[in-house]
């Protein structure tokens, strides 16, 4: 599992985009849940999103392979994240490889407004090719 953190463009506020990536079963979702729970324990306002197509373990929760879970909002399109995020400190996004390419702009807009954005997803597919918008997020 690789973890990349990068401070993005500043427009008066300082937000960040953190990318958690790696192969299947490498602990990406578990790490995402860990970071989001720490933010919640710190009293920060947190919103969590996943693609609505991800119904493997739960329709409304992000669930790791070791059965750790956290409540999330399923969305069909990445633009919905901007509308639903509201006034938050932290946004978590799981399975980012399944979102459309505008997820990159969504993450940048959130970070530019001072939000800490934590994204987890596969960087390559089964054949070793870049997967969805993940290369652009990296």
Walk me through the structure:
- With 138 residues, the protein is α/β, with parallel strands linked by helices.
- 25% of the residues lie in helices and 27% in strands.
- The protein has 4 helices and 8 strands, in the order ββαββββαβαβα.
- It has helices at 28-41, 79-85, 103-112, 134-137, and strands at 2-7, 16-21, 46-51, 61-63, 69-71, 73-75, 90-93, 116-121.
- The strands form 2 sheets. A 6-stranded mixed sheet has the order 1-2-8-7-3-6, with helices on both faces. It has a two-stranded antiparallel ribbon with strand order 4-5.
- The chain is globular.
- The chain starts with a strand and ends with a helix.
Please state how the strands of the largest beta sheet are arranged side by side. 1-2-8-7-3-6
Main pleated-sheet profile = 6 strands, mixed
* Secondary-structure element string: EEHEEEEHEHEH
Q: How many helices in DSSP terms?
A: 4
The geometry reads as: globular
Mean pLDDT: 85
**Secondary-structure-derived class:** alpha/beta
What is the count of β-strands? 8
How much of the sequence is in beta strands? 25-35%
- Assign a percent range to the helix content: 25-40%
Rg, rounded, reads 14 Å
Q: What is the CA–CA distance across the termini?
A: 14 Å
